[in-house]
Amino acid sequence: MIESPRTPLSVLRQVFGYDRFRGEQATIIDTVLAGRDALVIMPTGGGKSLCYQVPSLLREGVGVIVTPLIALMQDQVTALTDLGVRAAFLNSSQSGEESAAVIRRLRAADLDLLYVAPERLLMSSTLRLLGEVPVSLFAIDEAHCVSQWGHDFRPEYRKLTALAEQFPGVPRIALTATADGRTQDDIVSNLGLTQPRRFVAGFDRPNIQYRIHGGAQGREKLARFLADEHPRDAGIVYCLSRARTEQVAAWLGQQGRTAIAYHAGMGSAERAACQDRFLREDGLIVVATIAFGMGIDKPDVRFVAHLNLPKSIEAYYQETGRAGRDGEPATAWMNYDLSDVVKLRQWIEGSGAPEEQKRIERQKLEALLGLCESTACRRQALLEYFGEALPEPCGNCDNCLQPPETYDGTEVAQKALSCVYRTGQRFGVSHLVDVLRGADNEKVRQYRHEELSTYGIGRDLEVRQWRSVFRQLVTLGHLVSDQEAYGALRLTEKARAVLRGETTLRMRREIEPRSVRPARRPGATNLDRADQPLFDALREKRKQLAAAQGVPPYTVFHDRSLYEMAGRRPENLDGFAEISGVGASKLKKYGSEFLAVIAAHPRAGIDRPSETEAETP
């Protein structure tokens, strides 16, 4: 345990280099220090880790952090060690000798924090080991995994209730970025938390700009987005299939970007190498399935793009939350097509999950589709899903910045639904559009569909416009895809009212998306042009130091600290110590080297005083 300082604020300042806590961090820490259980719902990048790291340094014994994410363990242990904190992890990536060394340190009271996976924690040998040493607290990260209502349910999390029985009196803090009211209740119940204080810090990430597009040509739209807005930035592109991650990564390489694929079909060593490159390289794009990103604390991811629909709003929120963890402007961009909707619904129905679980997944998918097709403020809709209200439109999403056009789509919907019915509910979108537009091709003639009353009644709309109509009808539940008929569309009961003229439909008009620079959020860093050369030099020094130590650059300092150094230009160690993110360990370790870089780059037009002049009263 750290000897001094002895208060949360002094630990924050001297160890982590920050002057004040954010939001309810201080209250959460005080709750755990008092020995009470707590449930913390805090957005990605909101500072959840400090809520258990600080009390682990102040309470007697070792803080045990339970997480399924090996990447998070390694990343946080590296960062904590650089701060002078005694931290280690136990997981499957270690050799027997490495695990034994950690166990020796634990028994010798030489650890402040120990990260461990739930499966490893619940082994009888691990529980017996922890019973032999003082434990200051248990922090259960990704706590939504305990709930079937969560988006990443893991049965092994249910067994963590054993901690309450075997370690009575040891406070437990459950943390997650995504949990609605029902999931929160599940977490409390299934973990057996004892009268926990609940802290819901809010789900809003105002620095992230949300943009969602429908329709085909997703890769071409992505290329324009990257070229116009993020030509050199690091980011993540999510795809549904392993094959597509490799195809898109290769295609991005042809566009002149440095991109790598990541998916569960790769070997563990290859996946680890991808993660390591992402952490250490500037401007790298990882094209991945959802298996990538959890627990990776890279602060300067400037965009997260989806080329396919995620499975739920919770998944979308968590994945987009990997952008802009440093609080600087970032973009959450998505393009989806009708095939995504069909595929996800087929996966749900074809899974071996119990019917109750399928029902939950259907509800979550429908909520996501509602967000995608909404014409209102994206942020308001997103926050409303999590039970929060945003009084005014955010002004930083596509629907606010480029308000969508809507029209009375009742007539075109009737044409589309009627075509589905008259062709026997046996065909997919491409053929239906051909019939509506009066195409003369072999398939139309084969089925004699040129004789139907719906043949050619939709020549006034382009192919992409008809595809948009069908996508919206599927999204709104008027059509479903028949899994056993290779994606053929069928009418639902809901379609009857539209066909009979008993209801009207407002539909969204497809428009070409335009590039929009991410809005700067209040308080975000704004680097002066005159300070850019110094900032670049500081980044280069950071890169050199990180490479020499074999750690990611942001482990040395975040970009925000470098922005502040470039703007404030401290001249001595006392001034350098006032930079955000500079604690006692980093001041001693890096202060002189960064001060030398600053001294070598005086701001243009300003004569820096000599050392003697600066000290003269």
The description of the largest β-sheet is: 7 strands, parallel
- Specify the overall morphology: globular
According to DSSP, the number of beta strands is 17
Strand order of the largest sheet: 3-4-2-5-6-1-7
- Give the overall average pLDDT: 88
The percent of residues in helical segments reads 40-55%
Whole-angstrom Rg: 27 Å
Our count of helices gives 28
Q: Class by helix and strand content?
A: alpha/beta
Low-confidence stretches: 1-5, 519-524, 606-617
Q: How big a fraction of the residues is strand?
A: 5-15%
Quote the distance from N terminus to C terminus. Answer: 43 Å
Can you give a write-up of this model?
The protein has 28 helices and 17 strands. The chain is an alpha/beta fold and 617 residues long. The strands form 4 sheets. A 7-stranded parallel sheet has the order 3-4-2-5-6-1-7, with helices on both faces. Helix 14 runs antiparallel to helix 15, helix 18 crosses helix 19 and helix 23 packs across helix 25. The longest helix has 19 residues. It starts with 7 loop residues before the first helix and ends with a helix. 43% of the residues are buried. The N terminus and C terminus are likely disordered.
In short:
This protein has 617 residues and is an alpha/beta fold. The chain has 28 helices and 17 strands. A 7-stranded parallel sheet has the order 3-4-2-5-6-1-7, sandwiched between helices.
How would you describe this structure in keywords?
single chain, 617 residues, alpha/beta, 7-stranded parallel sheet, 6-stranded parallel sheet, 17 strands, 12% strand, disordered N terminus, disordered C terminus
